[in-house]
């Protein structure tokens, strides 16, 4: 038996760092906090790599099937304690679950997080609240690691909320900037709304299955799956409904349409944060959630998966169109993230359970992995650019290839990767998603192919406008980033190139049984390469040199362009709903009702009492003779009454 | 025994006296007159006591004692009342009963 | 002297001690020492309780003591505690202790202030330990009356109005309650024998259903008024807004809990059938409270009003859970009382401290305070996060227990109201973030605030005590939840005996 109890340290080290830096960080030199944070995460990363090695190559496989380790098992032991007993059956545990995808996520999170920690040593240097930044980064790392290691859906929900709040704190890092505060608020509330769905989903799911544990939920012979059909409501089974609600939570965190609006605004946070949270790790939590529950989705709620596929597909198209028009480089990347997560959702949505049919599942996880690398690279590259020119807006950039050679090369690699150029990592992962779609849903396949072209276009639009095109007047010459920033860039560039050569299907599959996957050149790969090249070509023609082509295009497709430029007015719709409807048409009337009707009623009781006593007090006039008059009248009246009564 | 004036005569006189007192009590503004009205009422009651005693229970003396008692109390009361009136006069510069109306709401 | 009566005696001795002290500085030191002892005693009580339970003591109430008080009506002074009361006593100990330090700077009639405050505390402690309805009611009144003085004399704004309104509404509740309690008393021996006020003995008999139907609404509403049951909650915003800091803390933190505790210990426990029959009315009212309070809080501008409405929402959840009448939900109700008590006390303490510096409570007149007073800012954010149910802080544990408990009912009605209550987590997030954003973040609006100082030592002590308690429950809820859950078993047994299904 292997003791995996040490894995609990992977999330715990960052939380201790958080507490330490958070409590005493302001008393130390800022750089010390940064180094403590980085060292803490490096330790976590080393432990994660060791875990991955042990899991994948030593003990994970039994009879060619990857096992999932929770608590005290026959093969391995991990930590799992009862945290809260809810009912006789339901109890919330806190523990560590090791299976292929959680171990894969450990690698992704600790790698990217470590890179971001190192990068921020340079990027955030001299910022106020440097220690606070590292404390929050550690808090986030803790929450995210806890999320992926969750043994049960409720533990996941707990950490889900914690990543939400870490994201809130980090987006609002520059808390003196009203736009950052608004963005953090928006991110938190929108995801909170989605989490409401998640919670309702958990309520229904746990009530019907009597368990929170992933292991019993996803057991294909367990009650959750075998008795899944159950009663139906509006044509879908209760199980399907609960999983759709759960997916709502995932869609909120992963910025799927229509809960995506917080993601672009979240770019108000410091750029390393965008790279870590809003590109590589937290936003894929929704994908991870669906993947985690995949057997339940696939076997007992296939309709739920269809929803996932269409939401993912639409989001990826929607975001790609908007990304083509944005001017803020971080927003372009944000929409790109949304689009790529759409791909992952599509991968899961079109997948079936088991073997070759589970290609989509594997591809989705694969894409999650490669995307983390190249998108983190893009964001960190964007950070280097912003660091150099002190602006986010493309119009103030151009010709930067001369000034930022390392950034330029690494950024180009990332752009080529995301565009799906052969033999770079995303080529493999994206094509596997496409071929999964090709086999299971042609409509989605066509859409995703088109989105692949759009992706190549908007990424190279960004690339050419920033690194080529006309050079604006710079106030001071842009300079290459310091070494702490370029090392992560180079590392991630290498990862982006070579991550695709991992035989992912040997490690991750829907039923944990490794299988072989091949690239389908004729049907999928070649069309996607062609589409990608067309996209790059169009961008080359339009943006390599300054030209009026883009304006012509924009006026040609005026309606679409204006719509996309304004993000199809979704922010306005949300603003309308929140400001107008909730604030003005619900809360104000409620407050008015409370003050004037409910409280008015109470005050009215008081007023009536007051009025009556005012009237009565006139009797107490102070005029003795008046009292005597009343007294005598009363006495006479009483005598008359008594005489009348008793004289008979 | 029952010679001369019948009981009703005394009672009617007493009633008249009593209601004269009541009337005076309620209409006069001067506290001294009000006090006099009170005395009238007391004496009306005295007459009742005495006449009932004399006519209904001639062998007993409780009525007489009560009347004497009332006279004594009335004397004390008059003393106290006049003392109060003097104080009121000092306070309000008047013994008009309507002026002394501070004990109200 | 038994350990429980000591809980009432210590405050009274403290009050006597204060009377003999002259210097106002010594007044607060005496109070702090007294309430510190009280906190230690409460802590010791938790320890003693748990070790007695571990030693295998399974009786329903521990540390019982009984003295005849007025034999003719069979009124006793009976005390005893189970896990629920122990938890509430610990909560009160913490909040009162923090309250003393939050009112360290009261300079107008400090002696009288601390006397009233501690008298109030003794009433609360007495309420939680008593097992005799009459004694319970007596302590209830002892706790409510000083509130009038505390708000009317040391309050701010329209304090007379607020004090009067609060006292009158609570007295109205008391009147209903007294009738309800007497009703229970007169029906406490349906098979003949002496009438009794003793809760444990009444629980053993079966009160006729007609009597239950009549007295359940009275008792429940009577306690409910103190627990801010919609539509009898309007004393709360005005009362809190006018009350001085420590009084708001004690009131929202502890006094409102008397309502929830009483509703569960008396109304549900002694009148279970009527409770089962009529619960739907009150479930509707409380689920309205939950959402309504939250929506009401969104548009308020005064920090204290926001918190008062938030309390309506959170306390609504307490009563809501109590009415769900199963073990998980009731466990959640008690946890929510404790959690809300700590968190709202923290809120009011912080509001008091901020107000003491900025002299305004209007959020639109403030901004960027995080930069000026980081300690208070961070504490406020923690309180806010606890309020919106962040895991790792107490609010989350309580809310989740309630939701999962309530969802155990299989009928549509209970499910729908549960979902309504669940939706409050979003609305709560909206108003909390609105306040935090407007108050602490953004640019500094008022130049005069720039030179304000951060929290002083006694303020830090008060804040940190509460934060530690909140985090402790949030991080390790298991023991508390189990301690409460085990003590709920007799109530659950009784309920399952009389309620079909």
Secondary structure: elements and pairs:
The complex is a heterotrimer of chains A (about 650), B (about 100) and C (about 500).
Chain A: E1 2-3, H1 9-24, H2 30-59, E2 61-62, E3 65-66, E4 69-70, E5 76-77, E6 80-85, E7 91-95, E8 97-98, H3 100-123, H4 130-148, H5 153-171, H6 178-209, H7 214-217, H8 223-226, E9 232-233, E10 236-237, H9 238-253, H10 262-265, H11 271-280, H12 285-292, H13 294-300, H14 302-323, H15 329-349, H16 359-389, H17 405-418, H18 425-440, H19 442-467, H20 483-498, H21 521-543, H22 549-556, H23 558-565, H24 570-617, H25 624-646
Parallel strand pairs in A: 1-5
Antiparallel strand pairs in A: 2-3, 4-8, 6-7, 9-10
Chain B: H1 7-27, H2 31-56, H3 62-92
Chain C: H1 3-19, H2 24-54, E1 62-70, E2 75-81, H3 83-102, H4 110-129, H5 133-154, H6 159-186, H7 199-204, H8 209-226, H9 235-242, H10 245-270, H11 272-298, H12 303-324, H13 327-358, H14 369-372, H15 374-387, H16 394-406, H17 412-422, H18 424-440, H19 457-475, H20 478-498
Antiparallel strand pairs in C: 1-2
Helix pairs in contact in C: 1-2, 1-4, 2-3, 2-4, 3-4, 3-10, 3-13, 3-19, 4-5, 4-10, 5-6, 5-10, 6-8, 6-9, 8-10, 8-11, 9-12, 10-11, 10-12, 10-13, 11-12, 11-17, 11-18, 12-13, 12-16, 12-18, 13-15, 13-16, 13-19, 13-20, 15-18, 15-19, 16-19
Label this structure with key terms.
heterotrimer; B: mainly alpha; Helix Hairpins; 0% strand; C: 501 residues; mainly alpha; two-stranded antiparallel ribbon; 20 helices
Would you summarize the structure shown here?
Helices cover 69% and strands 4% of the residues of chain A.
Number of helices of chain A: 25
For the largest interface, the chains and their residue counts are: A-C, 50 and 59 residues
Flag low-confidence runs of chain A.
Answer: none
Structural class of chain A: mainly alpha
Largest sheet of chain B: none
Share in helix of chain B: over 70%
Q: Strand order within the widest sheet of chain A?
A: 1-5
Q: Might you state the CATH topology name of chain B?
A: Helix Hairpins
What does this protein structure show overall?
The complex is a heterotrimer of chains A (648), B (105) and C (501). Chain A is mainly α. Chain A contains 25 helices and ten strands. In chain A, a hairpin with a 2-residue loop joins strand 9 and strand 10. Chain A starts with a strand and ends with a helix. With 105 residues, chain B is mostly helical. Chain B has one domain (7-92): Helix Hairpins (Orthogonal Bundle), CATH 1.10.287. Chain B is elongated, with a radius of gyration of 17 Å. The N and C termini of chain B lie far apart (57 Å). The model of chain B has no long low-confidence stretch (mean pLDDT 89). The mean pLDDT of chain C is 87. Chain C has one domain. Chain C has a two-stranded antiparallel sheet. Classes of the chains: A mainly alpha (648), B mainly alpha (105), C mainly alpha (501). Chains in contact: A-B, A-C.
């Amino acid at each position: 038996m292997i003791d995996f109890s040490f894995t609990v340290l992977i999330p715990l080290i960052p939380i201790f760092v958080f507490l330490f830096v958070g409590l005493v960080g302001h008393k130390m030199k800022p750089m010390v906090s940064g180094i403590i944070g980085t060292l803490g995460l490096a330790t976590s990363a080393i432990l994660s790599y060791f875990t991955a090695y042990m899991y994948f190559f030593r003990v994970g496989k039994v009879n060619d099937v990857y096992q999932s380790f929770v608590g005290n098992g026959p093969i391995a032991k991990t930590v799992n304690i009862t945290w809260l007993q809810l009912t006789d059956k339901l109890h919330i545990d806190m523990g560590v679950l090791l299976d292929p995808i959680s171990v894969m996520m450990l690698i992704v999170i600790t790698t990217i997080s470590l890179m971001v920690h190192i990068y921020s040593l340079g990027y955030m240097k001299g910022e106020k609240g440097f220690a606070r930044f590292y404390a929050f980064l550690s808090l986030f790392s803790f929450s995210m690691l806890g999320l992926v290691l969750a043994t049960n859906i409720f533990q996941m929900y707990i950490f889900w909320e914690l990543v939400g709040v870490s994201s809130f704190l980090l987006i609002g890092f520059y808390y003196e900037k009203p736009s950052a505060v608004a963005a953090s608020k928006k991110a938190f509330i929108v995801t909170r709304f989605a989490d409401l769905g998640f919670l309702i989903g958990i309520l229904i799911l746990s009530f019907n299955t009597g368990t929170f544990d992933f292991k019993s939920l996803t057991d294909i012979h367990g009650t959750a799956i075998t008795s899944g059909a159950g009663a139906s409501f509006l044509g879908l089974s209760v199980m399907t409904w609960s999983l759709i609600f759960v997916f709502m939570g995932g869609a909120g965190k992963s910025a799927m349409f229509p809960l995506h609006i917080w993601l672009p605004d979240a770019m108000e946070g410091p750029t390393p944060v965008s790279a870590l949270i809003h590109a590589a790790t937290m936003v894929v939590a929704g994908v991870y959630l669906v993947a985690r529950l995949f057997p339940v989705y696939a076997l007992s709620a296939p309709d739920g998966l269809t929803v996932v596929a269409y939401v993912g597909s639409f989001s990826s198209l929607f975001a790609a169109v908007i990304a083509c028009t944005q001017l803020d480089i971080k927003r372009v990347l944000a929409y790109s993230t949304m689009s790529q997560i759409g791909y992952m959702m599509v991968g899961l949505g079109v997948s079936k359970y088991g073997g070759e049919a589970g290609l989509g599942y594997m591809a989705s996880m694969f894409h999650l992995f490669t995307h983390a690398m190249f998108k983190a690279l893009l964001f960190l590259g964007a950070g280097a650019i912003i660091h150099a020119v002190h602006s986010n807006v493309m119009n103030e950039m151009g010709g930067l290839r001369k000034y930022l050679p390392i950034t330029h090369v690494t950024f180009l690699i990332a752009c080529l990767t995301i565009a799906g150029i052969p033999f770079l990592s995303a080529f493999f992962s994206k094509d596997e998603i496409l071929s999964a779609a090709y086999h299971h849903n042609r409509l989605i396949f066509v859409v995703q192919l088109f989105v692949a072209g759009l992706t190549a276009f908007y990424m190279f639009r960004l690339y050419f406008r920033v690194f080529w095109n006309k050079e604006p007047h710079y106030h001071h010459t842009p300079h290459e980033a310091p070494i702490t920033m370029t090392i992560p860039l180079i590392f991630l560039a290498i990862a982006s190139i070579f991550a695709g050569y991992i035989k992912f299907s040997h490690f991750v599959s829907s039923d944990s049984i490794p299988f072989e996957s091949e690239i389908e050149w004729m049907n999928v790969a070649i069309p996607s390469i062609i589409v990608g090249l067309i996209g790059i070509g169009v961008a080359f023609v339009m943006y390599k040199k300054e030209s009026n082509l883009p304006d012509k295009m924009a006026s040609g497709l005026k309606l679409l362009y204006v719509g996309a430029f304004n993000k199809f007015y979704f922010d306005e719709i949300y603003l309308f709903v929140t400001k107008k409807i909730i604030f003005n048409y619900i809360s104000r009337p409620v407050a008015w009702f409370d003050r004037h009707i409910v409280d008015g009623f109470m005050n009215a009781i008081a007023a009536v009492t007051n009025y009556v006593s005012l009237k009565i007090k006139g009797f107490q006039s102070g005029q003795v003779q008046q009292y005597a008059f009343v007294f005598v009248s009363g006495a006479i009246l009483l005598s008359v009454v008594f005489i009348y009564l008793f004289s008979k | 025994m029952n010679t001369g004036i019948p009981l009703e005569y005394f009672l009617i006189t007493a009633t008249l006296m009593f209601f004269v007192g009541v009337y005076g009590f309620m209409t006069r503004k001067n506290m001294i007159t009000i006090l006099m009205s009170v005395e009238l009422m007391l004496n009306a009651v005295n007459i009742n006591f005495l006449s009932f005693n004399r006519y209904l229970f001639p062998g007993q003396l409780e009525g007489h004692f009560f009347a004497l008692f009332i006279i004594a109390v009335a004397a004390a009361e008059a003393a106290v009342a006049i003392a109060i009136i003097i104080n009121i006069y000092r306070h309000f510069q008047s013994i008009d009963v309507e002026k002394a109306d501070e004990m109200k709401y | 002297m038994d350990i429980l009566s000591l809980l009432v005696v210590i405050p009274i001795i403290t009050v006597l001690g204060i009377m003999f002290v002259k210097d106002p500085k010594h007044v607060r030191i005496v109070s702090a020492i007294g309430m510190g002892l009280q906190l230690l005693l409460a802590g010791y009580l938790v320890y003693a309780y748990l070790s007695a339970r571990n030693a295998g003591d399974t009786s329903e109430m521990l540390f019982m003591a009984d003295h005849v008080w007025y034999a003719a009506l069979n009124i006793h002074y009976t005390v005893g505690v189970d896990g629920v009361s122990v938890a509430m006593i610990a909560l009160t100990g913490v909040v009162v202790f923090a309250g003393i330090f939050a009112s360290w700077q009261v300079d107008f009639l400090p002696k009288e202030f601390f006397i009233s405050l501690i008298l109030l505390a003794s009433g609360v402690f007495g309420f939680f330990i008593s097992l005799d309805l009459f004694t319970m009611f007596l302590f209830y009144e002892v706790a409510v009356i000083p509130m009038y003085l505390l708000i009317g004399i040391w309050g701010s704004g329209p304090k007379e109005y607020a004090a009067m309104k609060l006292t009158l509404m609570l007295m109205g509740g008391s009147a209903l309650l007294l009738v309800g309690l007497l009703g229970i008393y007169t029906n406490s021996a349906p098979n003949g024998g002496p009438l009794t006020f003793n809760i444990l003995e009444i629980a053993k008999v079966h009160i006729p259903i007609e009597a239950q139907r009549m007295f359940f609404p009275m008792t429940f509403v009577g306690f409910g008024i103190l627990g801010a049951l919609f539509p009898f909650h309007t004393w709360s915003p005005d009362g809190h807004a006018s009350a001085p800091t420590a009084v708001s803390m004690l009131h929202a933190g502890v006094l409102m809990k008397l309502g929830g505790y009483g509703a569960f210990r008396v109304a549900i426990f002694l009148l279970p059938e009527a409770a089962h029959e009529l619960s739907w009315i009150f479930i509707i009212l409380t689920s309205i409270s939950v959402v309504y309070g939250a929506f009401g809080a969104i548009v308020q501008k005064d920090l204290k009003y926001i918190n008062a409405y938030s309390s309506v929402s959170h306390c609504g959840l307490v009563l809501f859970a109590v009415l769900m009448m199963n073990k998980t939900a009731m466990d959640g109700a008690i946890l929510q009382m404790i959690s809300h008590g700590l968190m709202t006390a923290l809120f009011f303490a912080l509001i008091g401290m901020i107000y003491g510096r900025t002299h305004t409570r209007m959020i639109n007149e403030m901004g960027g305070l995080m930069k000026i007073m980081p300690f208070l800012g961070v504490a406020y954010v923690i309180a806010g996060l606890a309020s919106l149910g962040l895991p790792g802080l107490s609010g989350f544990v309580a809310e989740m227990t309630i939701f999962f408990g309530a969802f155990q009912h299989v009928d549509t009605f209970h499910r729908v109201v549960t979902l309504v209550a669940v939706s409050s987590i979003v609305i709560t997030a909206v108003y909390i973030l609105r306040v935090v954003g407007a108050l602490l973040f953004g640019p500094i609006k008022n130049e005069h605030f720039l030179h304000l100082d951060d929290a002083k030592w006694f303020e830090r002590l008060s804040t940190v005590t509460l934060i530690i308690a909140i985090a402790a429950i949030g991080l390790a809820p298991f023991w508390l939840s189990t301690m409460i859950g085990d003590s709920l078993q007799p109530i659950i047994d009784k309920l399952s005996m009389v309620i079909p299904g």
